[in-house]
Amino acid sequence: MSRLRRVLACEAGYSLVELLQVTMILGVVLSGLTAVFVSAMNSQVDMNHRFTAQQEARVAVDKMRREIHCASDVSPTGTSSSISVTLPGQCPTAVAHAQTTVVYDTQLVSAGRYKLRRAGVRIADYVTTGAVFTYAPPEAGKRRTLRVQLPVNPRANQSGQTWRLVADIVLRNTDRL
After folding, report:
1. Looking at the chain, which terminus has fewer C-beta neighbours within 10 angstroms, N or C?
2. Rounded distance between C-alpha atoms, residue 37 and residue 125, angstroms
3. In sequence order, which residues have a C-beta less than 8 Å from that of residue 22 and are 6 or more positions away?
């Protein structure tokens, strides 16, 4: 019996102060880990937005290239935010095998953000400038060329992280001068 009394009287355990200290240390460690995970998640979301915007720009220029290679004329000349592309009837995207005009333009979404459209349908987003088309009169012995410059940045307030896609598209269906 005396042995049982000694075991019950000598209960070894943790005091309330010790438990509070452990809880506070654990809280500090977990808050640090949480900050790291939140930062990593935000970086991943930002990277996905950038990748998506860049991929949309690549696909848009690829579609434009296929269509403009077949075009017989582009207007207006100079740098602009809108072009009209004249497609002859033999082009795959011409309507009912007749001469068709397609308009590519940029539309302001918000400050510093434009979307590139084909016939009113969005084909790329997060373009940072409106004047993306440059069409110059052809030089002697060369075919007509359209330059498309798409600066893309999902975060317009961070101009240092702008990705630029530049494409010179030749109108193969035109005469050399």
Report:
1. N
2. 29
3. none
Inter-residue contact 103 to 84 (CB < 8 Å): yes
The neighbour count for residue 131, using CB atoms within 10 Å, is: 13
| Look-up of token digits 């049982």 | 4
Dump pLDDT digits (tens) for 19-28: 999 999 999 9
Question: Which pTM was predicted?
Answer: 0.76
Residues with Cβ within 8 Å of 28's Cβ and at least 6 positions away in sequence, in order, are: none
C-alpha angle 145-93-79 in degrees, rounded to nearest 5: 30
Residues 102 and 88: their CA atoms lie apart, in Å, by: 11
Q: Which helix (H) or strand (E) holds 20?
A: helix 16-70
